[in-house]
Design a protein that fits this description.
By secondary structure, this protein is of the alpha/beta class. The protein folds into two domains: 198 residues, Spore Coat Polysaccharide Biosynthesis Protein SpsA, Chain A (Alpha-Beta Complex), CATH 3.90.550.10; 89 residues. The protein is built from 13 helices and eight strands. It has an eight-stranded mixed sheet with strand order 3-2-1-4-7-6-8-5, with helices on both faces. β1, α1 and β2 form a beta-alpha-beta unit. α12 packs antiparallel against α13. The radius of gyration is 21 Å and the shape is elongated.
């Protein structure tokens, strides 16, 4: 493997954990990589620490004279990177040594992939595993369909193709910039995670995800920002209504459901498959879609006063152990 990789890292006051992150980059078994860092106004020694590593221990470049928001700095990093493969990393996470080797090898063997993640182990501020897990699906149909509601990728564990991200419009200056990008990117190629853990993801009070246990509001914000791209054939207003009615964490009591919503969901899945060059039922086979159709039908029965029939249907559904409510951030 000889494909060069650029790590892209936006940072502001990351000194608490930065040395461990940089060490995990320097210790990669895959050596054809460099680090591109965008400092967004650090005052805690972050720049000085970066200069101790770059370029003497890690090849790379530090941009320190143009502080921006996270989304804008990520977009600038992608545009500045000179390689097709870009690896995301944050200044508080830790890569396992074989991360790049595994991801680059898989991407080279599968040119249809535009973004590839991995499983992650969650750690606390002391680097101790928390015991909690985030599901990172290793199935493309599941990730690309579910990502409209819940991210199927852990952002700092992703290796992506620069050309695909630029084609999708690059990062935007919004909160939850990764989830919003994945929605747009999902139309341009395959997205999923390798089954092995390749990153230690740190959750602490100062991290973006640290304070949250319910990600719904952030997911809704991402959906609003990407509303024109949520569902093929639907206007943004219609798309957001369907999004709320079919959210994996809200399906049991979503609101007023109609036959139109069943049709819209089926059509959106079929059109996305056609646009992606996949069989018409490609996304309909995902567990998220199957659960959404199940609950839409059940809520329709309830609406028309057929609660007993709905309860019987739910009983037999549960006996067959069909997935109902995927739960990932």
């Amino acid at each position: 493997m000889s494909e060069p990789v650029t790590w892209i890292m936006p940072v502001k006051n990351g000194m608490d954990y930065l040395p461990l992150t940089l060490e995990s980059i320097a210790n990669q078994t895959y050596k054809n990589h460099s680090l591109l860092v965008w400092d967004n106004g650090s005052t805690d020694g972050t720049l000085e620490e970066l200069r101790r590593w770059i370029p003497s221990r890690i090849p790379g470049v530090i941009v320190a004279d143009r502080p921006m928001s996270v989304g804008c700095s990520l977009a600038a990093l992608v545009e500045t990177a000179s390689t097709e493969f870009c690896a995301r990393i944050d200044a508080d996470d830790i890569n396992l040594p074989e991360r790049l080797e595994r991801q680059v090898s898989h991407m080279l063997k599968n040119p249809g992939i535009v973004a590839l993640g991995s499983q992650v182990t969650l750690i606390d501020s002391n680097g101790i595993p928390t015991g909690a897990q985030w599901e990172c699906p290793s199935d493309d149909a599941e990730v690309r369909w579910r990502t409209r509601w819940q991210s199927g990728l852990t952002h700092p564990a992703v290796l992506f193709r620069k050309s695909a991200v630029l084609r999708a419009g690059n990062y935007a200056d919004v909160k939850s910039e990764d989830c919003e990008l994945w929605i747009r990117l999902s139309r341009f190629g395959e997205m999923y995670s390798l089954p092995e853990v390749l990153l230690y993801y740190r959750r602490h009070a100062a991290s973006i995800s640290g304070p949250y246990t319910d990600f719904f509001l952030g997911q809704y914000r991402s959906a609003c920002n990407a509303a024109p791209h949520l569902f093929c054939g639907l206007q943004p207003e219609e798309a957001l209504v369907l999004w709320r009615l079919t959210h994996p964490q809200r399906m049991e009591d979503p609101g007023r459901v109609s036959f139109r919503h069943l049709f819209q969901l089926e059509r959106a899945a079929r059109l996305l498959a056609t646009e992606s060059g996949k069989p018409a039922d490609y996304f309909k086979a995902s567990s998220t879609y199957q659960a959404q159709i199940y609950w839409l039908r059940k809520n329709l029965l309830r609406r028309f006063g057929l609660s007993k029939l709905a309860s019987m249907r739910h009983y037999f559904h549960a006996r067959m152990k069909t997935p109902e409510s995927p739960n990932t951030p």
